[in-house]
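Tutorial handout. Part one gives the primary structure; part two gives the three-dimensional structure as tokens.
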Amino acid sequence: MSLASLPMYDLPELRAATDAWWRGLARAFEREGIAELPDGLDRRESYQDVWLASDLLFSQTCGYPLTHALAGRVELVATPCYRADGCEGPGYCSFVIVGAESRARAIDDLRGLRCAINGLDSQSGHNALRSLVATVAAARMRWPADTTLCTTMR
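Part two.
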């Protein structure tokens, strides 16, 4: 039996939606004649292990791991189109989120504060932020003061 995972945004509060997404994908795979589909998603802690499993049928990855750590090791078969705010077709957008009590209104207002990211290998959670602040950082050579890797997402 093969395995499948959709780990990138499979937060506990979204599990029902992720499971429904898998059921829809599984029906589409069945219509295309793909047999021996897993009944559910593999949710092991290390989704990097799933990506390289010999029995992997289908998974989801961020663009940066796809073009770097997974380059030549997996095959791109589709790009999802999300209906989330800021997304258009296969394009996505990232948001910088601050606390409700913050007076920050622009990226420069966050200079010297702590920054949390979801992973150093995340295009949307790390590289997009680096690009956003590159000109601000270059101007003063000190932004952000501290970066924390947020591991509670997964």
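Part three, for discussion. Residues 23 and 39 are 8 Å apart (CA to CA). DSSP finds four helices and four strands in the chain.
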